[in-house]
Design the sequence.
């Protein structure tokens, strides 16, 4: 336990606190005592500023910003957590055998990885969502698949380091099968750095998902998402800047918090 | 002898890159073929009968198997023909030629800004690692890295365009309308990209430079009384640029066609917009032409980065074929 490194500072706890708050809001958005529903249009208050009945104001269509922000967090959180996890699973399934078996299977997997990395991500996402429809699960799947090659590379590099280690040899002499060695000996050793990488990717995915909204590829319009709110607020940027400022600040703080945690976790594994 | 081996390495790399281009364009062909939109219906307009649609498909060759169409497209490309857009019937080459300068200017300016930030910051923080300045720069960089470029873009539009009315919020002014007006339109989008991208450049430069500064020959230079700026800029910088160049190459490559959201926000007619519109219109020749350009650029930049390694460190020229 001596390797824990520097003690977590105040920023670390602030980041944890903010993330806990966002997760809590996303979970409880349905049961919170909110005065407005998601699509309720308050035509007396179009793009109204913060204060009054609407705590954070309303958007250009007169919908309550706070409510949309709360429900919108679900999209960012689901995509931000599930897409990297999917990438991680694919990375483990293909990266560990590639590093372990070597030979033609490694060459095949790594060549495919190279091709996918060179493939314009935009085409993949556009075609993927055009075929399956711009739904939450499509976006999550598409981003997860796009991330897989990066995870495969990281998993392979981390796994390869253990190929010649003594404790692997010991397990093999003890009669353990290769699959069991990978699962019981290698996996626990590479999980730490991989989780740190996953966290770093999480922040990136939240950013990308928001960007998709600008191309009309995020969740379809009436459903709220942070990216969608920012993209829609472009039309009233001059008259009602608060419409974009709140979702922008929320997204920034969330990505910042995730990055802070990822950075700390990474620092821990790089040292050891 | 050494030269001959280097040439073999270059050929091997070119072959690999050619394979990547072939795989990517084929994959694009197969994937866009699955798009649900029907270009034939789009072209024939409303009230077209089934016979009309069939006629259009026949004329465009859309009812041939996808692999055959790919082969015929590839053959045309080898002869230097990219075909015409299905939607507008303009030559694909013409569309690429009119959109490419916008992308290139955005790319050049954004990378220039990123370099202007990352190089000095990386050098100074590596020289004074652990100092207050280093920590401050690190914190600022961390905040920058957590800002999506579209958030930055809209924030800057609010500040510089709407509040202070200094710069145009959107729109593209061609170079022919004057350099100043043209640059004004590119300033905010280029900054929005650069302010996010400089961070990773700065970080890798700082890390590598710190490692280089621990080498014996730097100690020797210090003992000889070489001034600090000379040690940093002449002795230490060059061997510390490998990761930096690699990341710079990757970022540059991803910007060709990848800056689409910034292009959308600022209404810049670049390659990214062209590609998105082509996909929405299911305009095969235009999609293929754009993807070909993007992939060629990607591959070419990677190739140039590989060549740069040899220029940066002569030792690598001999062992290049091990890697």
Sequence:
């Amino acid at each position: 336990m001596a390797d824990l490194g520097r003690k977590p500072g105040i920023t670390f706890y602030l980041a944890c606190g903010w993330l806990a708050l966002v997760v809590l809001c996303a979970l409880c958005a349905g049961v919170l005592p909110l005065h407005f529903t998601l699509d309720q249009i308050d035509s007396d208050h179009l793009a109204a500023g913060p204060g009054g009945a609407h705590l954070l104001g309303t958007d250009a269509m007169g919908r309550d910003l706070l409510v949309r922000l709360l429900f919108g967090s679900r999209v960012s959180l689901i995509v931000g957590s599930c897409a990297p996890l999917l990438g991680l699973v694919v990375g483990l399934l293909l990266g560990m055998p590639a590093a372990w078996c070597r030979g033609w299977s490694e060459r095949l997997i790594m060549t495919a990885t190279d091709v996918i990395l060179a493939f314009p991500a935009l085409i993949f996402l556009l075609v993927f969502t055009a075929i399956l429809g711009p739904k939450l699960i499509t976006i999550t799947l598409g981003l997860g698949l796009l991330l897989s090659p990066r995870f495969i590379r990281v998993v392979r590099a981390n796994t390869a380091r253990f190929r010649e280690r003594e404790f692997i040899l010991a397990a093999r002499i003890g009669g353990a099968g290769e699959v069991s060695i990978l699962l019981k000996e290698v996996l626990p050793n590479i999980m730490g750095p991989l989780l740190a990488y996953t966290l770093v990717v999480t922040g990136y995915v939240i950013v990308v998902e928001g960007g998709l909204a600008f191309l009309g590829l995020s969740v379809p319009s009436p459903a709220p998402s942070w990216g969608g709110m920012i993209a829609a607020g472009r039309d009233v940027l001059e008259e009602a800047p608060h419409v974009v400022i709140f979702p922008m600040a929320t997204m920034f703080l969330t990505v910042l918090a995730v990055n802070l945690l990822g950075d700390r976790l990474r620092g821990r594994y790089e040292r050891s | 002898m050494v030269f001959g081996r280097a040439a073999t390495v270059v050929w091997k790399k070119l072959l690999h890159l050619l394979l990547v281009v072939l795989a990517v364009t084929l994959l694009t062909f197969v994937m866009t073929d699955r798009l649900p939109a029907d270009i034939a219906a789009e072209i024939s307009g409303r009230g077209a009968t089934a016979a009309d649609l069939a006629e259009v498909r026949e004329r465009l060759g859309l009812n041939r198997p996808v692999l055959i169409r790919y082969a015929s497209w590839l053959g045309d490309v080898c002869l230097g023909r990219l075909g015409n857009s299905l939607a507008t019937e303009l030559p694909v080459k013409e569309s690429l030629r009119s959109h490419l300068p916008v992308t290139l200017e955005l790319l050049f300016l954004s990378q220039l800004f990123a370099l202007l930030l990352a190089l000095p910051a990386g050098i100074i923080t590596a020289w004074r690692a652990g100092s207050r300045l280093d920590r401050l720069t690190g914190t600022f960089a961390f905040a920058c890295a957590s800002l999506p470029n579209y958030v930055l873009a809209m924030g800057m539009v609010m500040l510089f365009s709407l509040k202070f009315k200094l710069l145009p919020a959107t729109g593209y002014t061609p170079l022919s309308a004057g350099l100043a007006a043209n640059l004004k339109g590119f300033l905010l989008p280029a900054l929005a990209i650069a302010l996010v991208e400089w961070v990773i450049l700065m970080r890798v430069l700082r890390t590598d430079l710190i490692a280089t500064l621990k080498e014996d020959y730097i100690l020797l230079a210090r003992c000889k009384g070489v001034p600090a700026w000379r040690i940093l800029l002449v002795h230490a910088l060059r061997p510390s640029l490998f990761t930096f160049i690699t990341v710079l190459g990757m970022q540059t490559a991803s910007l060709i066609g990848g800056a689409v959201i910034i292009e959308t926000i600022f209404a810049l007619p670049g390659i990214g917009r062209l590609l998105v519109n082509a996909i929405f219109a299911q305009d095969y020749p235009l999609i293929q032409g754009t993807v070909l350009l993007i992939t060629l650029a990607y591959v070419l930049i990677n190739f140039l980065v590989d060549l740069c390694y040899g220029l940066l460190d002569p030792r690598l020229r001999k062992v290049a074929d091990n890697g």
